[in-house]
Write a structure and sequence with these properties.
This protein is mostly helical and 213 residues long. It has one domain. Helices cover 82% and strands 0% of the residues. 41% of the residues are buried.
Length: 213
């Protein structure tokens, strides 16, 4: 468990410093602390035995995509790196969907959760997409739909006997993405970072923790 606690401590301390870096506008500190914060959730997953099961390996792969996406989202005002980061996170969500569905799922719950998340995605998309550049709107719609399906598949997996932390983490992860979208497309503000980043790391850590259940 020493690696688990080391990972948690690394993420917690680095996240605190990352928030300070955003508040102070210290770009160099963001480049130091964000990779460290994201490395922490990889260490947690490995420490909990991610390599001991096919589910754990899929989750670890998805978390690795998140790690890469986090780095690509550090540069401010760079459209290409933002789009690349969005694409990497899309891959991460696809892998998480595969992990949740193949781990055993309740089809009735998966169907019901998918319908519910489709409604949430529609409302979210109608609010957000008009603020995005026209060329990015199809990608933003795809991202919204995929993260909704990721949450639905996590709920289906939990109700099929899987770990509750998976669906909790997926839901928190999805909520944190609202802060990213709001900051990028609607209203840039340090407040988006102050609530979005803690929720993101909490969500990802909960998903990482699910490999132990």
């Amino acid at each position: 468990m020493i690696f688990v606690w080391l990972g948690l401590l690394t993420t917690a301390v680095s996240l605190g410093l990352l928030l300070v870096a955003h508040a102070g506008g210290w770009r160099w500190l963001q480049w130091v602390t964000k990779p460290l914060a994201s490395t922490g959730f990889l260490v947690v997953a490995l420490g909990l035995g991610a390599l001991d099961s096919s589910y754990g390996m899929l989750v670890l792969l998805a978390l690795a995509f998140c790690w890469m996406g986090d780095l690509l989202l550090i540069p401010a005002g760079h459209k290409r790196t933002f789009v690349a980061g969005l694409g990497v996170f899309l891959l991460g969500h696809v892998v998480l969907i595969a992990a949740f569905i193949t781990s055993g799922t309740s089809l009735p719950w998966l169907g019901g959760a998918t319908l519910f998340m489709a409604a949430v995605a529609l409302v979210t998309g109608r609010w957000l997409v008009p603020h995005a550049p026209s060329k990015l709107r199809p990608v933003v719609w795809l991202y919204i739909c995929l993260i909704g399906l990721m949450v639905a598949s996590a709920i289906g997996a939990t109700m099929g006997g899987g770990p509750p932390v998976a669906s909790a983490g997926a839901a928190v992860f999805a909520v944190s993405d609202i802060a990213v979208a709001r900051h990028r497309f609607v209203s840039p503000s340090i407040m988006n970072k102050l609530w979005g980043l803690p929720l993101y790391y909490l969500g990802v850590l909960l998903i990482a923790w699910s490999v132990a259940s």
